[in-house]
């Protein structure tokens, strides 16, 4: 089977709580190859653009404030069936509903502050990767 790519962010809550190393270890142990990786911070405008699909949702303001409040780790990951397998690895949006052993079950604190992002389609993975990385930063 051909490999494909997904995009992830370790969100500000998980960075603040010191979970970068543990989360990257879970990701690589699950067989994902790191194609691109950096510590960065989104501006309010960046977060509004990145999550524009949710702009009409009641939690949008909170989401933008949260995602721009501190550094994140952005990464592009490669594996067979990357998008779907990564969403399985991170677990449900709400950590209360996430399966045992998933990254959100282990490290998320609430439905809003849920430790990690994972792309929801191959198309969005490509868009989100280019949002954060230049071609020279992808390996
Ligand atoms: P993500 O895009 O970050 O990987 O999360 P997801 O697909 O599991 O969930 P999505 O529906 O795309 O929601 C995006 C992010 O918005 C925040 N959220 N807050 N307060 C709330 O009810 C609520 N619902 C969603 C979360 O940070 C969620 O990951
Ligand atoms: Mg989503």
UniProtKB/TrEMBL annotation:
Enzyme Commission (EC) number: 2.7.4.6
Catalytic residues of the enzyme: 117 (pros-phosphohistidine intermediate)
GO molecular function list: ATP binding; metal ion binding; nucleoside diphosphate kinase activity
Annotated binding of ATP, by residue: 11, 59, 87, 93, 104, 114
Record-level GO cellular component terms: cytoplasm
SMART domains: NDK
Principal place of residence: cytoplasm
GO BP, one annotated term: UTP biosynthetic process
The protein's required cofactors: Mg(2+)
Domain Nucleoside diphosphate kinase-like, chain residue ranges per copy: 3-137
Pfam families per the UniProt record, alphabetical: NDK
Subcellular location: Cytoplasm
Catalytic activity from the UniProt record: a ribonucleoside 5'-diphosphate + ATP = a ribonucleoside 5'-triphosphate + ADP; a 2'-deoxyribonucleoside 5'-diphosphate + ATP = a 2'-deoxyribonucleoside 5'-triphosphate + ADP
Keywords, ordered alphabetically: ATP-binding, Cytoplasm, Kinase, Magnesium, Metal-binding, Nucleotide metabolism, Nucleotide-binding, Phosphoprotein, Transferase
Keyword presence, Cytoplasm: yes
UniProt key word Cell membrane: no
Oligomer status and interactors: Homotetramer.
NCBIfam families: PRK00668.1, PRK14545.1
Similarity section: Belongs to the NDK family.
PANTHER family: NUCLEOSIDE DIPHOSPHATE KINASE, NUCLEOSIDE DIPHOSPHATE KINASE DDB_G0292928-RELATED
Full protein name: Nucleoside diphosphate kinase
Designated gene of the protein: ndk
């Amino acid at each position: 089977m051909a490999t494909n790519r997904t995009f992830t962010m370790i969100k500000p809550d998980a960075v603040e709580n010191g979970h970068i190393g543990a989360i990257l270890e879970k990701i690589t142990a699950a067989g994902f190859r790191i194609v691109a990786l950096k510590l960065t911070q989104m501006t309010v405008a960046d977060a509004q653009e990145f999550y524009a699909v949710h702009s009409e949702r009641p939690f949008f303001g909170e989401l933008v404030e949260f995602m721009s409040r501190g550094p994140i780790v952005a990464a592009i990951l490669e594996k067979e069936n990357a998008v779907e397998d990564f969403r399985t690895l991170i677990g449900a949006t709400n950590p209360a509903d996430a399966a045992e052993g998933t990254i959100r079950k282990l490290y998320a604190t609430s439905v809003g502050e849920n430790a990690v992002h994972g792309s929801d389609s191959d198309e969005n993975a490509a868009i989100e990767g280019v949002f954060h990385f230049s071609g020279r930063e992808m390996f």
